C-alpha cells in the first residue's frame, strides 16, 4: 500500500535536481582536459584531433544512445560542415572562425532536418542503409562538383583567419586545441542540459518503448526530427573544426570509414551517458597511435580484435568499468 | 447529446483476412462499457484502431463528435483518448516517477522543454506525486520499473493512462495476469475514476465485467454480434453459444 509519509513535490524536485548535478569525477575529467592545455604542450595536435573526434562521437551518442537511432552515415553531416567551413573560409564569406563555425553548424543542421524524415520509420537495418546511402551520395556530389569542392584533390586554399580576430592558428596547435576544447566543452554542457531535461527524458522513453511513448501523448516523430537535427549540427561543427584547424578539407570527410570508426569509438566508450564518445575518442586515438607505432601496417588487426572482444565480453561490462566512474546513479 | 466515442462502418483487413468488419460502436458519455468476445474476436484490433496504432481500411472514428480517423496516436491522447495495454508496455529503465512525469509534462505542454532539468517545475511535481499516491506507487517511485512486482507494474500501466487525464479511457484487460488477492487494488483504482471519464474496457473475467459494466458489446469474428445491458446479454442464449463454441452457433 502507499507509503506513510507523502513525499511532497519539493522532495521530488530535489531528488531530480540531485541526479542532474555535476559529479566530482566529471569535474575532474574537465579539470584534466584544461590541465592538458598547460601540461602537455607537445601533444596539442593529437589532443585537438581527439577533441574533434570526441565531439563527433558525442553527436552520434545523442541519436544512438538517447533516441535509439543507429547511423552508419553520420559522416554526411561531419563532411558537410567541413566543406561549408572550407568554402566560407576560402571565399572569405565570413572571416571570423567562430562565426564561420556557427554558420557551418547551422548548414549541417538544415541538412540533418531535411534528411531526418528518412530515418523516422523502419528497423535498425533500414536506418543503417538509409544513413549510409545519404553519406555516399553527398560524397559523390562533392566529387562531381570539383570546380567548387576541388574534387578528389580536396579543397585547396583554405586559410583560417585569427580566432576572434586576435589569435592566429599556429603550427604547434596550441590555439587550435584551446579553441576545439572550448567548443567541445560548451557543446557538451548544452548536450548535458538537454539530456537531463523533459525533452531528453522523452527521447529515452521513445528509445525504451516507442509504442507507449506515443500512447502517453509524446509526439514521437517531432522529437526524433529535433534530436536528429541537433546531432547533425554537432557533427557539422566537428567537421568545421577539422577544416579550420587543419586548413584543409578532402572527400575523406564523407568516407564510410569515418562513419564506421565513429561507431567503434562509441562502442569502446559506451552509449547513453555522454562521456562515452569522449572516453572512446581518447581510447581509440591513443590505441591507434600506439598500435600504429608497434605495427604500422597491421594496427587495424588489433582494433578489430578489441572490437570483437568488447562485443563478446559485453560492452556493458567493459564500458561499465570505464564509464561507471562517470555514470549518474540510475 | 454527443457520444463520447463512435465508430461507423469500421473495417480492417490484414492481407486477405478481415480482423474488423463493419463495426459501428456507440459509447455514451460517462459510460462503463465492456467489450467482450472469444479469443481472436478482434477486440485488441479494435482498440488499436481507436487509438491510431493501426489505420482502418474503411470507416470513421469520432471522439466527442470530432473525426479523429486520421489523427496520430499522440494527437488522440491530447484530445482526451488514452489507453492501457493488455501486455504491460512500460519504460523498464525508468522509475515510476519518471514515467508518470513524462505523461504529466506532456499533457501540460511542457514535455518538449529542453533547457530545464526535469522535475524543476513544482506544479508538475505535485500533479505527478498525486497520481503516484492514488495508485499506491509513491513508496516505489524511485525504483526501476523493471524490478517492481507484477502487481505494481500493472498499477503503473493504468496510472500512466490516467496521468494523461483522459475523457475517454480504453482499458485492455486491466486485471490480466494479476493474482486474485491483488485484483482489488486494480479494480478500486478503476472504479474510483470520476464519472465524467468514459470507460470502454475489454475483459475476460466475467465477474468483473458484470460487476462493473453498465453496457456490454459482444464482438465475434471481428464483427459486432450483439449489444445490450448486462442482464440482457447474460440471458442471451446466442452469447452463451459463442463462448461455448462455434458449432453451437451454427446449430
List the helices and strands and how they pair.
The complex is a heterodimer of chains A (330) and B (251).
Chain A: H1 9-20, H2 24-39, H3 44-66, H4 75-90, H5 97-116, H6 124-144, H7 146-149, H8 174-195, H9 198-208, H10 210-215, H11 220-246, H12 256-269, H13 275-294, H14 299-313, H15 315-323
Chain B: E1 5-14, E2 17-23, E3 26-27, E4 32-36, H1 43-51, E5 58-63, E6 66-67, H2 73-78, E7 81-83, H3 96-107, H4 122-134, H5 150-163, E8 168-172, H6 180-191, E9 198-202, H7 206-212, E10 215-220, E11 223-228, H8 230-235, H9 237-244, H10 246-250
Helix pairs in contact in B: 3-4, 3-5, 4-5, 5-6
Short description:
The complex is a heterodimer of chains A (330) and B (251). Chain A has 330 residues and is mainly α.
Walk me through what this model shows.
Chain A is mostly helical. Helices cover 72% and strands 0% of the residues of chain A. The radius of gyration of chain A is 20 Å and the shape is globular. The longest helix of chain A has 27 residues, at 220-246. In chain B, strand 5 and strand 6 (66-67) form a beta hairpin. Chain B has a 6-stranded mixed β-sheet with strand order 7-8-9-4-10-11, with helices on both faces. In chain B, strands 1, 2, 3, 5 and 6 form a 5-stranded antiparallel β-sheet that branches. Chain B has helices at 43-51, 73-78, 96-107, 122-134, 150-163, 180-191, 206-212, 230-235, 237-244, 246-250; strands spanning 5-14, 17-23, 26-27, 32-36, 58-63, 66-67, 81-83, 168-172, 198-202, 215-220, 223-228. Chains A and B meet through helix 1, helix 9, helix 10 and helix 11 of A and helix 2, helix 3, helix 4 and helix 5 of B.
Amino acid at each position: 500500500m502507499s507509503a506513510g509519509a507523502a513525499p511532497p513535490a519539493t522532495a521530488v524536485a530535489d531528488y531530480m535536481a540531485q541526479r542532474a548535478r555535476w559529479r566530482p569525477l566529471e569535474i575532474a575529467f574537465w579539470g584534466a582536459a584544461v590541465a592538458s592545455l598547460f601540461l602537455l604542450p607537445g601533444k596539442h595536435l593529437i589532443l585537438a584531433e581527439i577533441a574533434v573526434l570526441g565531439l563527433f562521437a558525442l553527436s552520434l551518442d545523442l541519436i544512438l544512445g538517447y533516441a535509439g537511432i543507429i547511423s552508419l552515415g553520420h559522416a554526411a553531416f561531419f563532411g558537410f560542415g567541413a566543406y561549408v567551413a572550407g568554402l566560407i573560409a576560402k571565399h572569405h564569406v565570413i572571416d571570423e572562425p567562430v562565426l564561420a563555425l556557427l554558420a557551418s553548424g547551422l548548414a549541417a543542421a538544415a541538412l540533418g532536418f531535411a534528411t531526418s524524415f528518412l530515418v523516422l520509420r523502419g528497423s535498425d537495418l533500414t536506418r543503417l542503409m538509409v544513413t549510409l546511402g545519404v553519406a555516399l551520395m553527398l560524397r559523390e556530389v562533392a566529387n562531381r562538383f570539383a570546380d567548387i569542392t576541388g574534387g578528389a584533390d580536396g579543397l585547396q586554399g583554405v586559410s583560417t583567419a585569427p580566432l576572434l580576430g586576435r589569435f592566429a592558428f599556429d603550427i604547434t596547435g596550441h590555439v587550435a586545441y584551446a579553441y576545439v576544447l572550448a567548443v567541445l566543452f560548451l557543446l557538451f554542457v548544452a548536450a548535458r542540459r538537454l539530456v537531463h531535461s523533459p525533452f531528453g527524458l522523452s527521447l529515452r522513453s521513445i528509445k525504451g518503448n516507442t509504442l507507449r511513448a506515443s500512447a502517453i501523448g509524446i509526439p514521437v516523430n517531432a522529437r526524433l526530427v529535433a534530436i536528429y537535427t541537433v546531432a547533425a549540427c554537432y557533427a557539422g561543427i566537428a567537421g568545421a573544426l577539422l577544416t579550420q584547424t587543419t586548413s584543409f578539407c578532402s572527400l575523406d570527410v564523407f568516407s564510410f570509414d569515418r562513419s564506421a570508426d565513429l561507431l567503434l569509438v562509441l562502442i569502446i566508450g559506451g552509449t547513453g551517458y555522454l562521456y562515452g564518445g569522449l572516453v572512446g575518442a581518447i581510447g581509440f586515438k591513443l590505441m591507434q597511435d600506439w598500435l600504429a607505432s608497434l605495427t604500422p601496417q597491421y594496427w587495424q588487426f588489433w582494433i578489430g580484435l578489441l572490437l570483437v572482444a568488447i562485443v563478446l565480453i559485453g560492452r556493458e561490462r567493459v564500458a561499465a568499468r570505464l564509464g561507471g566512474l562517470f555514470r549518474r546513479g540510475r | 447529446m454527443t457520444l463520447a466515442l463512435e465508430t461507423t462502418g469500421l473495417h480492417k483487413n490484414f492481407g486477405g483476412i478481415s480482423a474488423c468488419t463493419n463495426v459501428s460502436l456507440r459509447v455514451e458519455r460517462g459510460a462503463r462499457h465492456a467489450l467482450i468476445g472469444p479469443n481472436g474476436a478482434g477486440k485488441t484490433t479494435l482498440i488499436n484502431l481507436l487509438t491510431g496504432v493501426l489505420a482502418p481500411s474503411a470507416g470513421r472514428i469520432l471522439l466527442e463528435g470530432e473525426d479523429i480517423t486520421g489523427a496520430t496516436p499522440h494527437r488522440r491522447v491530447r484530445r482526451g483518448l488514452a489507453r492501457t495495454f493488455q501486455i504491460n508496455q512500460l519504460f523498464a529503465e525508468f522509475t515510476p516517477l519518471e514515467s508518470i512525469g513524462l505523461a504529466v509534462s506532456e499533457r501540460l505542454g511542457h514535455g518538449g522543454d529542453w533547457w530545464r532539468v526535469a522535475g524543476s517545475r513544482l506544479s508538475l511535481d505535485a500533479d505527478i506525486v498525486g497520481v503516484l499516491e492514488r495508485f499506491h506507487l509513491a513508496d516505489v517511485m524511485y525504483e526501476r520499473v523493471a524490478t517492481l512486482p507484477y502487481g505494481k507494474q500493472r498499477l503503473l500501466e493504468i496510472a500512466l493512462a490516467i496521468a494523461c487525464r483522459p475523457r475517454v479511457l480504453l482499458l485492455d484487460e486491466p486485471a490480466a495476469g494479476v493474482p486474485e488477492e491483488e485484483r482489488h487494488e486494480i479494480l478500486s483504482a478503476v472504479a474510483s475514476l470520476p464519472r465524467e471519464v468514459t470507460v470502454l474496457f475489454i475483459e475476460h473475467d466475467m465477474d468483473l465485467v458484470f460487476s462493473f459494466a453498465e453496457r456490454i458489446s459482444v464482438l465475434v469474428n471481428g464483427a459486432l454480434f450483439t449489444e445490450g445491458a448486462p442482464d440482457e446479454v447474460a440471458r442471451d442464449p446466442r452469447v452463451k453459444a459463442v463462448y461455448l463454441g462455434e458449432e453451437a452457433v451454427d446449430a
